[in-house]
Specification:
By secondary structure, this protein is mainly β. It is built from 2 helices and 12 strands. It is elongated and about 45 Å long.
């Protein structure tokens, strides 16, 4: 599998999953996304996900491709190419670095969720259990 673009401001990065005894077992562990916001509060990133073993997955369409975007305090995950591999993966945590003001409310897919905000401008939403194969939205106000 591949990683997000380099961890520069205005981009997203996938933190490797918790290691395990085999690649197959560890690839089923939840993901943690790290979002480094630009000064204007925006960020972009993408994820190419395949089984990690097969050859020519792009050419044969055996992959998932997800685009991520942050704009106006709204994070969106959009599935651009779907594949069964992505149905096995969940996003458990998303951390946003560079959130200048403490939010009063955070929603995931329009539902209120608990969150933490640290004085070093990091907003974190945990226990998400969001399936990577389905788009989702995180919004803070």
């Amino acid at each position: 599998f591949c990683f997000f673009v380099p961890p520069e401001f205005g981009h997203l990065r996938r933190i490797p999953q918790t290691p395990n005894t085999t690649l197959w077992i560890s690839t089923g562990n939840p993901l943690r996304l790290i979002v480094a916001l630009r000064d204007d509060g925006s960020a972009t990133g993408d994820l190419f996900w395949d089984d990690g073993e097969s050859i020519d997955t792009y050419e044969t369409g055996q992959y998932a491709y997800i685009a991520f975007n942050v704009s106006q305090k709204t994070f969106t995950s959009t599935v651009l190419h779907s594949h069964v591999e992505a149905t096995y993966i969940t996003v458990e945590t998303v951390s946003f670095f560079g959130v200048r003001e403490e939010p009063s409310n955070v929603t995931v897919n329009s539902k209120d969720v608990p969150f933490t905000y640290r004085t070093n401008q990091v907003l974190t939403v945990t226990d998400l259990g969001l399936n990577l194969s389905q788009g989702f939205t995180i919004r803070w106000t």
